[in-house]
Amino acid sequence: MKAPLVVLATGKRKSAVARATLRKGAGLFRLNGQPVEIVEPEIVRLKVQEPVLMVGDRARGINISVETRGGGVIGQASAARTAVARGLVLWLKDDRLREMFKHYDRTLLVNDPRRKLPKRPGGRGARSRRQKSYR
Predict the structure, then answer these.
(1) Is the pTM of this model over 0.70?
(2) CB 19 within 8 A of CB 30
(3) How many CB atoms lie within 10 A of CB 91?
(4) Which domain holds residue 85?
(5) Strand, coil or helix: what is 56?
(6) Within a domain: residue 111?
(7) Pairing relation of β-strands 34-35 and 62-69?
(8) Is 33 left (phi over 0), alpha (psi -120 to 50) or beta?
(9) Structural domain total, the chain
(10) Is residue 120 part of a domain?
């Protein structure tokens, strides 16, 4: 099986969107233009690298570039993680890898559908209400 020239994959989490581009190369991994090894905080770096670490040596010859927008730091990391995992499945064309990702954590391949509830009148947020004292 011949690997494709470029694979594009997307991931979403809350209001964050990530686009991953996979190309043949020297195994470089960049997140928003900077090498993933220097991304801070560490929990974000570990979260984004998770699918690549699970694949192991098969990801050695793939350059991965991820661009994220919107949301917060952890939302962007989760979206990037999904985009990278989807891209690796498309690049390697391996059904066992897809099953391994799905068995480990379904959000590696499926976007998290949860969204923030809209604010409603009578309080500060979606659920909280102003208290009544009756005095």
Answers:
(1) yes
(2) no
(3) 22
(4) 6-105
(5) helix
(6) no
(7) unpaired
(8) left
(9) 1
(10) no
59-71 pLDDT, tens per residue?
Answer: 888 999 999 999 9
Tracing tokens 């208290």 back to the chain, one arrives at 131
pLDDT of residue 134: 82
Q: What 8-state DSSP symbol labels residue 2?
A: P
The reply to whether 130 falls in a domain is no
Reported as half-sphere exposure (CB side, CA atoms, 13 A), residue 105 has a value of 13
Cβ-based neighbours of 88, under 8 Å, separated by 6 or more: 22, 51, 52, 55, 59, 62, 97
Cβ 7 vs Cβ 87: under 8 Å: yes
CA distance 2 to 52: 20
Would 53 be classed as within a structural domain? Answer: yes
> Could you give the CA distance from residue 84 to residue 82 in angstroms, rounded to a whole number?
6
pLDDT tens, position by position, 106-127: 989 999 898 889 999 999 999 9
Here the CATH number for the domain that contains residue 92 is 3.30.230.10
Q: Is residue 106 a contact partner of residue 75, using CB atoms and an 8 Å limit?
A: no
CA 23 to chain centre: 18
